Amino acid sequence: MDKTKVKLAMAPIGWTNDDMPDLGSENSFQQCISEMALAGYSGSEVGNKYPKDPEVLKPYLDVRGLTICNQWFSSFLAS
To answer: I need a labelling partner for 66 at 20 to 30 A (CA). Which of 15, 23, 34, 41 fits?
Structure first.
């Protein structure tokens, strides 16, 4: 494995909670991604405070050197 190609990303749940909006409600989307970048992460999962339009989201990420790594998907596969 080439360790120079490994990148770390962070989920915004460290700042704000999608299921319980009162937890972290004081943290803005910009604060979340700014602190992720300052901590040295390369990417972020999409959170509920993130702009839904990729064209709006991209400039916020680009200036901080971040990319989107994934987005949560919930389903009932066995039902």
So the answer is: 23
CA 70, 49, 13, 11 torsion: positive or negative? positive
pLDDT one-digit tens code per residue, 47-78: 889 999 999 999 999 999 999 998 877 788 88
pTM listed for this prediction: 0.83
Residue whose pair of structure tokens reads 């994934």 in the numeric block: 70
Beta-carbon contacts of 49 under 8 Å, excluding residues fewer than 6 positions away, are 12, 16, 28, 29, 32
Coil, helix or strand for 11? coil
pLDDT of residue 65: 97
Map 16-75 to HEC letters.
Answer: CCCCCCCCCCCCCHHHHHHHHHHCCCCEEEECCCCCCCHHHHHHHHHCCCCEEEEECCCC
Domain ranges of the chain: 8-70
